[in-house]
Structure formats: C-alpha cells, structure tokens
UniProtKB/TrEMBL annotation:
SMART domains: AP2Ec. Its cofactor is Zn(2+). Signal peptide: none annotated. Zn(2+) 2 binds at E142, D176, H213, E258. NCBIfam families: nfo. It comes from Halanaerobium salsuginis. It catalyses: Endonucleolytic cleavage to 5'-phosphooligonucleotide end-products. It comes from the Bacteria. Belongs to the AP endonuclease 2 family. This is Probable endonuclease 4. HAMAP family: Nfo.
Length: 279
C-alpha cells in the first residue's frame, strides 16, 4: 500500500522524509514554501541535495507537493490571475528541482464570472505554465467540496479543464474523499461509492487519478463544508474508508492523509488504523 501523510517542513524541507518514515509512511505530502503567502525563500542547492539523499535513504516514493492556498487560476481579476500563474509556476519549478512526482493544487473560484469562464481561465493558465516550464513533475487538479463559486466539485468540470489543454498528458487528478463526500457523494453507501467511480471514469478516466487524499469529514454529505476528520472519526466512518483503500481499481493509487499529527512523533494512529483496515 502506498500510504503517507502531509508532514511538516519545519527546520527545512530536508527534515520531512525522516518525519514520514518515523510514522511508517512510504510516501508523503509537503509544502515547498508558505502555503498562505505569495513569497518563498530560495531553496539552496545543498538543501535540495540533502532532501534527495534522505528521501532515498527512507524510501519515500513518490513525493507529493501541495501548492499554496492563495492561488486562484479561475479568477476574473487580471492581477490576481497573473499573480496566481506566477506562484504556481514558481512552485512547479521548485518541485522539479526537488524531484517531486506530483504537485496538487485547488482549481480556484470564478467569483461570479461563471463556471464556463472560470474553466477557460484555468485551462489557459495551465497551458501558459506547461508551455514555459519543462518538468517531470505532474500537476494534479484536486476536486473541491463545492462551497461558493469553487470549481471542481463536479468531475465534469475537471474533465473540461483537461480537455482544453495542449498537453493533457502532463495533468492528472487528486481525489479528496472528504471533498467528494461534502460535495455530493454519500460514501457511507456502497452504491454511492460505485457511482463516484463510474462518474470519474466517464468524465475524466481512472488513468488520470494519481493521488487520493484519504480524509474523513466532520460534516454531513452534501454540506459543501471542507473540514477534515481523522479516518473513522467523522461522518464517513471506518467502513467507507476501508471500502476505498480495498477497492481493486485503486490498489496502485497513492493515498495521502491530511489530518492533524499526533503528539507521539514516532506513532500515528491514522496510519496504524489504515494498515489494519487494508485487507
């Protein structure tokens, strides 16, 4: 099972592989800068070298990076749109230097311009970024919980973005279980989980699914509220989580937890539970 957690980069990015390995992870997700800011410090060559050495030492593969939250490629405001393109481009370059396999980002919000306009802005921005930056890192669109004017709660919207790309092979999808549950799929029911998989195959294609954010939800299905809970401690529950990680079609996917860390830095109850739930 390819299982990891979002871990801290406190003290430097090179410290993160050891943190992931300490809690029995063989993959991980990190930020490569300030997730709530626009500016980031340069990554020294020595730190990048140390990061690569330690991820190899602890067998952390793949490495998933989550982009900053301020990025909004769907914005109709030109200044914010251009700033967002620059920020994602910068993170994309940082991922390439680190050798990270995936860069996950939230598609954004159209803020009143409409879904069609927002989708066009996102695809145009991605085309610009992919045309300028040569990288082996794959950019992943993440589905959203559907609050407000966010784009990506429906798989059809993600599919439309990909269809408009000049280089669609460089883009994949990250599926967040909490977001899907909050948007429309009541994953406590086997039939709804199968419905989700069918919709994903139809609108995007399962080959595009690279990473699964395996989060429980603090709120009910259809609430449009994005607030994660530890697996088995939220509205999805253990059975729904077990159904996801044991589905034959998802066996080779990368599972990442985005839940709070526990006090014991050498033990993570979420990771322990998921290993138990895996058949």
């Amino acid at each position: 099972m390819i299982l990891g957690k979002h871990v801290s980069i406190a003290g430097g990015i090179a410290e993160s592989p050891a943190r992931a390995a300490a809690i029995d992870c063989n993959t991980m997700q990190i930020f490569v800068g300030n997730p709530r800011g626009w500016k980031n410090k340069d990554l020294p060559a020595a730190e990048i070298k140390e990061f690569k050495q330690k991820r190899n030492k602890y067998n952390i593969n793949p490495v998933v990076v989550h982009a900053a939250y301020l990025i909004n490629l769907a914005s109709p405001k030109q200044e914010l749109w251009e700033k967002s393109i620059s920020a994602l481009k910068s993170e994309y370059k940082r991922c390439d230097r680190l050798g990270a396999e995936y860069l996950v980002f939230h598609p954004g919000s159209h803020t009143g311009s409409g879904f069609k306009a927002g989708i066009n802005r996102i695809s145009q921005a991605l085309n610009d970024i992919l045309a300028e930056v040569e990288s082996d890192t794959m950019i992943l669109l993440e589905n959203t919980a559907g609050a407000g004017t966010t784009i990506g709660a429906k798989f059809s919207q993600l599919g439309q973005i990909i269809d408009k790309l000049d280089q669609p092979e460089k883009i994949g999808v990250c599926l967040d279980s909490c977001h899907a549950f909050a948007a429309e799929y009541n994953l406590t029911k086997k039939s709804e989980f199968e419905h989700l998989l069918d919709d994903f195959k139809t609108e995007i294609g399962l080959d595009k699914l690279k990473v699964i954010h395996l989060n429980d939800s603090k709120h009910d299905s259809g609430s449009k509220k994005d607030e994660h809970a530890h697996p088995g401690q939220g509205k999805l529950g253990k059975k729904a989580i077990a159904r996801i990680i044991n589905n034959p079609q998802l066996q080779d996917k990368v599972f990442i937890l985005e839940t709070p860390s526990f006090d014991d830095c050498n033990k993570d109850d979420d990771i322990i539970l998921l290993h138990k739930l895996r058949d």
